[in-house]
């Protein structure tokens, strides 16, 4: 099969499946709808593996440098001679890696949901939405052009909105869906303005041409954008990139735009695994990676912003994660923290040999994280499925009841904690070594965070599977709860294999900033500190949580106010609420509405009655009103006149 | 009366012909059988629209009082399409009232006025067209004569419109005083920027701004929209507004081309105020027609951003946007009309749980609201994007910053309605809203258009090939 055709099938099969499922909806039996979803995604996975194999080993590289291929491309809208929007498929190492990750995780989630969502009222629609999401996400990563990316970016947001709000009878789910949509939309605005700014400067929207024009310091476009007017000490180019990064930060839940992600956990758990752990939330990292040459060569100051935002978020989210008691929220904050790792890893990278290790490390971590975090979420889903609660207090001692979940979850915890021989160790080591060579402060923060990560992950693990047996028994007794959930077990096992083995891929051979094949250096002396802090974290978690005791409580009390702060997520949500509800609505929205109600509208609604529809009352009420209108009208004309004469005479 | 007179005035002749046919129908008591008659009229309007697609040569008549270009033909036909769609959505309303033929005669007379206005090459013609398009609408707004707020709305429109006309005429007379002619080309060549012409411009601008509901000339909008029958609200917000946008743009580009710096400044300010105020007032509206009234004010603010681009691209993006805006708003008002005809309720709370009771209508309404909000991949997104890109072309960064913020606020406003339909529980069960064949056709045409227009490059490229800058 030729490349174009297989790519077209790969991209459009999920869309076809979405259209079919959503249009036929209830006419299909749930089983059939599920089968269609799973089957189409399996085909997509096979095709993306074939594409990846072909790209990396057959046609992708010329003289050991991977090429940017555009097998499909057609012009769609033309603004003017220089500026047009194209649609197409761009194959380069990062997009191919993403194709594999997305299709694989999505298939796992499709299979898993077969059991997990069994008996849900809108089972068919659920599969339709999953397909829509997969289509949009695939379209996003292969975009040839900023604009195409933006469109899919928004589509991804819409499908995420639909899936978060899937339990639409639940008030909290509705609120979460709305919050996610609005917060990310707000960030997307930055992205859109960034796109406009950059396309205006480079006179193109095409990624290839854009990077070519803006990453060569001597090109006229770069010079025009990076000299010229500055705002707060940064050039137009740097601001364009920062605005684009704001879009990425919204999707990837970087501080202070992270507030939507923990709430997004209101959606079904497999959805969290797919969208809010493995794929959509790394779109921001992907975006920065996509534009990396421009960041690194022409606007290092913008890259620095990325680095510091990332490092701060990593620490910030990890601190919150240690205090949460809802297991999905712990995982949500852990996701924020891990994505922030990828983000600052890009931020500390530079251009040229010896500096670009961070780039490879970031994508490597993206790759390994997708597997172990999806596994963690799916494991958490299995736990929730068994105990019907998200709260740690209802759990404990589940290792006998859920053996498969227990072992796979343990593998994922070991991977994320960075224990040697598990995948997370290799990617995290690469990130830390990149940070060590570039910025010692960030290295310190990252090291500390990695200790925290090990601690909160094992707190979670011990708290669920050890500790004391939970009192509440939901009628299943002590029988093995997993015996009739084969569709949940298979993905867990497959993902566990990936979470263990993904680290052994020589990632530098496939992905690097300049698309050549590099060797990721391994520094033994740099590997020791993170492993040491990780083990300390695990040890503390072991002492605190393997059996019920008061040690944790004592420590918690000794932190006092700080613990309370962190438990309440540093009150960021409350600050937002204050600004939007109190300040915006009360100070702006309400007076505006009041003005409309009372001044403009009130006179009529308040004083007239139907019987008073006589000429007399018309005269009284109406004339008053129209006079007001006329007054404003005349005022407007006079202000316009005086402004014009003042400025242009 | 030569052949050219016939062909260049084709659109006007056709409308006059239809009006004449309607008069004959009235005399022949055709309205005794309401439904066949409405169908016949809809077919005539469809034929009118299809005829409008036949290409026409450019030219001018009567010493340049009247001109026609391919762009003008396109604009007129967008209006034809809008009137056809509105007529289809009004089917049920019209079957339940009397004097349907007068309804159409008034509407078409107003449309004729707009055609004259769009084609005008002389300020006097422009003025005549503008008046001709307004006065019949005031009667239409008043069509639910039994209802107090409908009559009130009609009176309000006629009073405030008379006032704005006065101001406009004053401006025109000053312009004449300054230039000594009212011919477009003469004015465009001889216009000097001085206190008198600036003042004339400000007064003329006031007249246009009133019709387009630009803040602070917008105060009549919400009351009139709320009081008028739904199909007329739709007509006002789409056809009246669209036609004035076309004329305003061509007046700025050709008539006041020399004054670009000055009007750019004012239009930018008005764009910012209009978007912001429109949005803020939308925030807490509870009446759905009022909500859409304010939101349409916001939309005009965005159009002004596009107009301020002052380039060929700005010209085409505004026309493109108006086309999309016609489809979005007709669809939205179509659904609102169907619901209002069923239970007479026009508050937002009547839309709670609409998705459960009437999924089809809820989906159409959400699609059109998403398009108005500019969410991709609906056509509205492309419309907004092109408008903003035009603004970008003229380096209006402050205006763009405001526009971007307003995009988000407006999203919130529209999402509020969508949320009500999909996620709130109905307080009073609405039951199945009856639709009818013409309404379904109109809604499907609009919905299809909203989905596919953005993906057919030919449409934008065609508009773009006809457009001109300053």
Summarize the helices and strands and which ones pair or pack:
The complex is a heterodimer of chains A (649) and B (470).
Chain A: H1 3-24, H2 30-59, E1 61-62, E2 65-66, E3 69-78, E4 84-91, H3 93-116, H4 123-141, H5 146-164, H6 171-202, H7 207-214, H8 220-226, E5 230-231, E6 234-235, H9 236-251, H10 260-263, H11 269-278, H12 283-290, H13 292-298, H14 300-323, H15 327-348, H16 357-387, H17 403-417, H18 423-438, H19 440-465, H20 486-501, H21 524-545, H22 551-559, H23 561-567, H24 572-607, H25 615-648
Antiparallel strand pairs in A: 1-2, 3-4, 5-6
Helix pairs in contact in A: 1-2, 1-4, 2-3, 2-4, 3-4, 3-11, 3-16, 3-20, 4-5, 5-6, 6-9, 9-12, 9-14, 11-16, 12-15, 13-14, 14-15, 14-19, 15-16, 15-18, 15-19, 16-17, 16-18, 16-20, 17-19, 17-20, 18-19, 18-21, 19-21, 24-25
Chain B: H1 3-8, H2 10-27, H3 34-52, E1 59-61, E2 66-68, H4 70-89, H5 91-95, H6 100-119, H7 123-141, H8 148-179, H9 184-190, H10 195-212, H11 220-227, H12 230-255, H13 260-282, H14 288-307, H15 312-343, H16 354-357, H17 359-373, H18 379-393, H19 397-423, H20 437-452, H21 457-466
Antiparallel strand pairs in B: 1-2
Helix pairs in contact in B: 2-3, 2-6, 3-4, 4-6, 4-12, 4-15, 4-20, 6-7, 6-12, 7-8, 7-12, 8-10, 8-11, 10-12, 11-12, 11-14, 12-14, 12-15, 13-14, 13-19, 14-15, 14-18, 14-19, 15-17, 15-18, 15-20, 15-21, 17-19, 17-20
Structural commentary:
The complex is a heterodimer of chains A (649) and B (470). Helix content of chain A is 71%, strand content 4%. Chain A is mainly alpha-helical. Chain A has a two-stranded antiparallel sheet. In chain A, strands 3-4 form a two-stranded antiparallel ribbon. A two-stranded antiparallel ribbon of chain A has the order 5-6. The longest helix of chain A has 36 residues. Chain A is globular, with a radius of gyration of 27 Å. Chain A starts with a helix and ends with a helix. Chain B has 470 residues and is mainly α. Chain B is 77% helix and 1% strand. Chain B has 21 helices and two strands. Chain B has a two-stranded antiparallel sheet with strand order 1-2. Chain B is globular and about 65 Å long. The two termini of chain B are 34 Å apart. The mean pLDDT of chain B is 84. The chains are: A mainly alpha (649), B mainly alpha (470). At the A-B interface, strand 3, helix 5, helix 6, helix 24 and helix 25 of A face helix 8, helix 10, helix 11, helix 13 and helix 18 of B.
């Amino acid at each position: 099969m030729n490349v174009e055709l297989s790519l077209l099938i790969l991209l459009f099969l999920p869309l076809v499946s979405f259209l079919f499922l959503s249009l036929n909806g209830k006419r299909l039996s749930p089983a059939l709808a599920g089968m269609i979803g799973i089957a189409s995604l399996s085909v997509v996975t096979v095709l993306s593996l074939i594409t990846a194999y072909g790209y990396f080993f057959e046609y992708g590289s010329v003289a050991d440098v991977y090429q940017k291929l555009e097998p499909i491309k057609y012009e769609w809208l033309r603004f003017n001679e220089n500026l047009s929007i194209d649609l197409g498929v761009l194959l380069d190492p990062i997009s191919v890696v993403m194709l594999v990750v997305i299709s694989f995780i999505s298939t796992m989630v499709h299979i898993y949901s077969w059991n997990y969502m069994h008996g849900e009222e809108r089972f068919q629609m659920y599969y339709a939405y999953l397909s829509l999401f997969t289509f949009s996400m695939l379209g996003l990563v292969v975009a040839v052009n900023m604009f195409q990316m933006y469109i899919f970016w928004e589509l991804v947001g819409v499908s995420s909105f639909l899936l978060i709000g899937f339990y639409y009878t639940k008030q909290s789910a509705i609120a979460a869906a709305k919050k996610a949509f609005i917060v990310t939309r707000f960030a997307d605005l930055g992205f859109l303005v960034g796109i406009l700014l950059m396309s205006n400067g480079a006179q193109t929207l095409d990624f290839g041409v854009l990077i070519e024009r803006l990453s060569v310091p001597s090109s006229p476009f770069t010079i025009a954008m990076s000299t010229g007017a500055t705002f707060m000490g940064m050039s137009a180019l740097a601001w364009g990139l920062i605005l684009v990064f704001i879009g990425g930060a919204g999707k990837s839940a970087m501080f202070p735009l992270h507030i939507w992600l923990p709430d997004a956990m209101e959606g079904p758990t497999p959805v969290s695994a797919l969208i809010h752990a493995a794929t959509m939330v790394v779109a921001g990292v992907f975006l920065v990676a996509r534009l990396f040459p421009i960041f690194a060569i022409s606007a290092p100051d913008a890259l620095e912003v990325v680095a510091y935002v990332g490092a701060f978020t990593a620490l910030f989210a990890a601190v919150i994660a240690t205090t949460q008691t809802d297991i999905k929220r712990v995982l949500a904050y852990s996701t924020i923290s891990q994505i922030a790792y990828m983000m600052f890893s890009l931020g500390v990278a530079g251009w040229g040999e010896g500096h670009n290790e961070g780039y490879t490390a970031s994508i490597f971590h993206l790759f390994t994280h997708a597997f172990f975090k999806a596994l963690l979420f799916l494991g958490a889903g299995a736990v929730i499925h068994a105990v019907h609660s998200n709260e740690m207090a209802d759990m404990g001692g589940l290792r006998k009841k859920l053996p498969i979940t227990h072992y796979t979850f343990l593998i994922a915890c070991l991977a994320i904690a960075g224990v040697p021989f598990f995948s997370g160790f290799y990617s995290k080591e690469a990130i830390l070594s990149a940070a060590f060579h570039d910025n010692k402060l960030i290295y310190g923060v990252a090291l500390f965070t990695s200790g925290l990560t090990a601690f909160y992950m094992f707190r979670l693990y011990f708290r669920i599977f050890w500790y004391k047996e939970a009192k509440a028994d939901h009628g299943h007794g002590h029988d093995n709860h997993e015996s009739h959930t084969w569709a949940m077990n298979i993905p867990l096992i497959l993902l566990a294999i990936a979470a263990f083995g993904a680290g052994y891929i020589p990632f530098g051979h496939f992905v690097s900033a300049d698309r050549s094949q590099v060797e990721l250096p391994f520094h033994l002396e740099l590997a020791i500190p993170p492993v040491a802090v990780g083990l300390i974290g695990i040890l503390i978690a072991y002492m605190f949580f393997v059996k019920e005791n008061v040690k944790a409580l004592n420590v918690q009390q000794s932190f006092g106010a700080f613990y309370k702060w962190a438990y309440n997520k540093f009150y960021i949500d409350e600050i937002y609420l204050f600004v939007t509800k109190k300040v915006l609505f009360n100070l702006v929205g309400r007076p505006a509405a009041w003005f409309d109600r009372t001044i403009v509208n009130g006179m009529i609604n308040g004083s007239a009655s139907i019987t008073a529809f006589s000429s007399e009352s018309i005269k009284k009420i109406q004339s008053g009103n129209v006079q007001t209108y006329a007054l404003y009208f005349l005022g407007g004309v006079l202000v316009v006149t005086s402004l014009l004469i003042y400025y242009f005479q | 009366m030569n052949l050219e007179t016939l062909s260049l005035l084709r659109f006007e002749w056709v409308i006059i012909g239809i009006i004449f046919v309607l008069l004959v129908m009235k005399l022949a008591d055709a309205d005794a059988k309401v439904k066949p008659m409405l169908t016949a009229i809809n077919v005539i309007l469809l034929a009118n629209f299809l005829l409008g697609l036949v290409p026409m040569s450019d030219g001018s008549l009567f010493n340049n009082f009247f001109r026609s270009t391919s762009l003008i033909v396109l604009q007129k036909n967008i209006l034809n399409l809008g009137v056809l769609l509105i007529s289809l959505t009004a089917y049920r309303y019209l079957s339940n009232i009397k004097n349907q033929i007068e309804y159409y005669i008034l509407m078409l007379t107003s449309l004729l006025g707009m055609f004259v206005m769009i084609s005008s090459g002389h300020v006097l013609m422009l003025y005549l067209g503008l008046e001709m398009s307004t006065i019949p609408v005031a009667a239409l707004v008043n069509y639910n004569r039994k209802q107090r707020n409908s009559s009130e709305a009609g009176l309000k429109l006629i009073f405030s419109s008379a006032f704005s006309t006065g101001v406009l005429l004053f401006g025109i007379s000053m312009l004449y005083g300054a230039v000594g002619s009212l011919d477009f080309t003469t004015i465009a060549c001889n216009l000097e920027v001085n206190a008198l012409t600036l003042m004339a411009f400000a007064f003329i601008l006031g007249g246009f701004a009133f019709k387009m509901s630009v803040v602070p000339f917008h105060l009549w909008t919400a009351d009139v929209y709320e009081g008028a029958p739904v199909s007329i609200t739709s007509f006002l917000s789409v056809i009246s507004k669209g036609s004035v946008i076309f004329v305003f743009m061509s007046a700025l580009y050709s008539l006041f081309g020399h004054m670009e710096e000055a009007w750019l400044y004012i239009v930018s300010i008005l764009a910012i105020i209009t978007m912001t105020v429109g949005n803020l007032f939308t925030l807490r509206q509870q009446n759905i027609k009022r909500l859409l009234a304010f939101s349409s004010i916001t939309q005009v603010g965005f159009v002004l951003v596009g107009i301020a681009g002052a380039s060929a691209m700005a010209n085409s993006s505004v026309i493109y946007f108006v086309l999309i805006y016609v489809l979005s708003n007709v669809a939205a008002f179509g659904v609102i009309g169907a619901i209002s005809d069923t239970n007479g309720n026009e508050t937002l709370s009547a839309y709670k749980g609409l998705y459960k009771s009437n999924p089809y209508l809820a989906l159409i309404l959400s699609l059109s609201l998403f398009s108005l909000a500019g969410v991709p991949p609906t056509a509205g997104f492309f419309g907004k994007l092109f408008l903003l890109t035009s603004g970008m072309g003229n380096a209006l960064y402050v205006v763009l910053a405001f526009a971007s913020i307003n995009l988000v606020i407006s999203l919130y406003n529209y999402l509020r309605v969508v949320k009500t339909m999909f996620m709130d529980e109905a307080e009073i069960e609405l039951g199945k809203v009856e639709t009818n064949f013409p309404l379904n056709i109109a809604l499907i045409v609009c919905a299809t258009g909203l989905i596919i227009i953005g993906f057919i490059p030919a449409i934008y490229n065609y508009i773009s090939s006809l457009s001109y800058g300053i």
